[in-house]
Design brief:
Radius of gyration: 66 Å
Number of strands: 4
Strand order of the largest sheet: 2-1-3-4
Distance between the termini: 175 Å
Oligomer: single chain
Order of helices and strands: HHHEHEEEH
Largest sheet: 4 strands, mixed
Strand content: 5-15%
């Protein structure tokens, strides 16, 4: 078979033209697409790496915040426990103070109650004793005992300090009247002697009234203006009873 160089050359030209056409219209667009894909892939990889770095940074930040929150929570828990303990201690102190105050008040009330009961018992005993004494004295009281009581009162009147006598005299009004009360009838001589002793020390004369009151039991009561001189069993028993009950 004889080689046809013209045909061979034409084939070579056709191949070269085909290669040029392929290179111009197929290879370059494909390479361009491949290059663009490589760039896109590189960008995607870079974005993914950046996102991964950002995610790592966010995770580290979150972990730090989580640790900080844990510390703050622990600190808040400790502070709350301390505040609760302090409040408990304060309330216990207040409660103990209130209980102590209530105990003291109860002690005072109980002490006062015991004193009141003792005072009432004492007053009752004193009243019963006074009643018994009054009943006994009412049986033995008579003119003889009354005379002795009058003599004793006049003796005390004679011994009364002069300043007190002067004070009584200065306190008596100008129109003062005298009243002598006795349990039994008083003889005229005894009346005159009594008036003489009273007026003698007061250095004044008065109009006198003599009355009888068996409630005195024995003795007398001299009333002159607003001043009263007591020397009888009734007043003495009453003074005894009032002194025992805190009366005047």
């Amino acid at each position: 078979m004889e080689l046809d160089w013209s045909t061979f050359l034409l084939e070579i030209v056709n191949v070269l033209v085909l290669v040029w056409l392929l290179k111009r219209f197929l290879y370059r667009p494909v390479m361009t697409v491949i290059e663009e894909r490589k760039v896109a892939i590189a960008k995607t990889v870079a974005d993914a790496s950046r996102l991964q770095n950002e995610a790592s940074a966010l995770k580290e930040q979150y972990d730090r915040r989580l640790v900080g929150w844990e510390h703050e929570r622990e600190k808040a828990r400790v502070q709350l426990q301390e505040e609760i303990a302090a409040e408990r201690h304060r309330r216990l102190a207040v409660l103990q103070a209130d209980l102590e105050k209530e105990r003291q008040q109860a002690t005072v009330r109980e002490s006062q109650r015991i004193k009141d009961v003792a005072r009432q018992a004492e007053a009752l005993a004193l009243l019963q004793g006074t009643q018994f004494t009054a009943s006994l004295l009412s049986r033995v009281a008579g003119p003889e005992l009354e005379t002795k009581l009058i003599d004793a009162m006049m003796e005390d009147w004679s011994r009364l300090p002069q300043p007190q006598v002067d004070a009584i005299r200065s306190a008596l009004p100008a129109n003062a009247r005298g009243r002598v009360t006795t349990a039994f009838p008083l003889e005229q001589g005894s009346r005159e002697a009594l008036v003489k002793k009273v007026e003698g020390r007061l250095d004044r004369t008065f109009e006198w009234e003599f009355v009888e009151d068996r409630n005195l039991l024995a003795g007398l009561r001299v009333s002159l203006g607003g001043w009263v001189l007591r020397g009888n069993l009734q007043d003495e028993l009453k003074f005894f009873a009032d002194s025992g009950t805190g009366g005047s």
